[in-house]
Amino acid sequence: MxxxxxxxxxxxxxxxxxxxxxxxxxxxxxxxxSNNEPWYRAYAEKxxxxxxxxxxxxxxxxxxxxxxxxxxxxxxxxxxxxxxxx
Length: 86
Description:
Layout: H1 2-13, E1 18-22, E2 25-26, H2 31-34, H3 37-44, E3 53-54, H4 56-66, E4 76-80
Parallel strand pairs: 1-4, 2-3
């Protein structure tokens, strides 16, 4: 998908297209699941680190993608997770 979007937008608008895919993150939106211990453990067990990600751990990858440091990166997916099992 990112490659297709990149081909469409890059030529017309000179935009870099990147997709950010995080693991499950502890946020107010996931509180209903994370506050339920069996559900929390079920998701955490799928992670190599055996825990959920924190929002603070997602900041640097997003800032990198938004910065000039990623100017040569386009049409790709950045997976930010302890494992690809989710």
